[in-house]
Backbone:
């Protein structure tokens, strides 16, 4: 499994997002899913005819 090093500021920001003792993996996966959903929405939105 891959690992990454996070600086203290990033860890503090992740701690602020954690709910009910979520693991960092869970928080990061949730952020990635949100990012992908927003990216897909923007992509689909650009396909509309005006």
Residues:
């Amino acid at each position: 499994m891959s690992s990454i090093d996070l600086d203290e500021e990033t860890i503090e920001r992740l701690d602020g997002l954690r709910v009910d003792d979520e693991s960092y993996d869970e928080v990061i996966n949730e952020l990635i899913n949100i990012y992908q959903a927003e990216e897909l929405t923007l992509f689909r939105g650009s396909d509309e005819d005006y």
Q: What stands out?
A: The chain has a mean pLDDT of 86.
